[in-house]
């Protein structure tokens, strides 16, 4: 795996990062997003889950020789196919190399973390994601989150 996550403690706070093992450099966009989540006082479990997820997506991009900017600039249909492919990549356990099928909720939470990253980068002015944010996949994830909140899940 090219990308890994880790954490460091600074005082009472724990900060998470995503690192490129080939270059030894931090993946700036992911690390900035994780720092943002810490500064928002998100629970450590939430930030840990996101930190655990993002390297899988970055590895997925790397395997396809894509960047997040490439995805942001894709046509709508290509984006939809890209995110569907990532969802299936996770669902079928390819991301861990075990090829053990994961639960739908797990796969959906991974996709939700990725969409959160894109949304954050858009709000920071680093990515144009109007097309991503209008994607049916985003609407489906947001709808599922709303339904789960109503059910108390």
Helices and strands, with pairings:
Blueprint: E1 3-10, E2 13-20, H1 28-39, H2 44-63, H3 68-72, H4 76-91, H5 104-123, H6 130-133, H7 136-151
Antiparallel strand pairs: 1-2
Commentary on this structure:
This protein is mainly alpha-helical. Helices cover 61% and strands 10% of the residues. It is built from seven helices and two strands; from the N terminus they run ββααααααα. The longest helix is centred in the middle third of the chain and has 20 residues, at 44-63. The termini are far apart. The mean pLDDT is 87.
Largest sheet: 2 strands, antiparallel
Strand tally, please? 2
Biggest sheet strand order reads 1-2
* Spans of at least 5 consecutive residues with low confidence: none
Overall form? globular
Order of helices and strands: EEHHHHHHH
Mean pLDDT over the residues:
87
Helix content: 55-70%
Helix-and-strand structural type: mainly alpha
- What is the first-to-last residue Cα distance? 32 Å
Strand content: 5-15%
Oligomer: single chain
Radius of gyration: 15 Å
Separate helix tally: 7
Task: Provide a quick synopsis of the model.
This protein has 153 residues and is mostly helical. It contains 7 helices and 2 strands. The protein has a two-stranded antiparallel ribbon.
Which key phrases capture this entry?
single chain, 153 residues, mainly alpha, two-stranded antiparallel ribbon, 61% helix
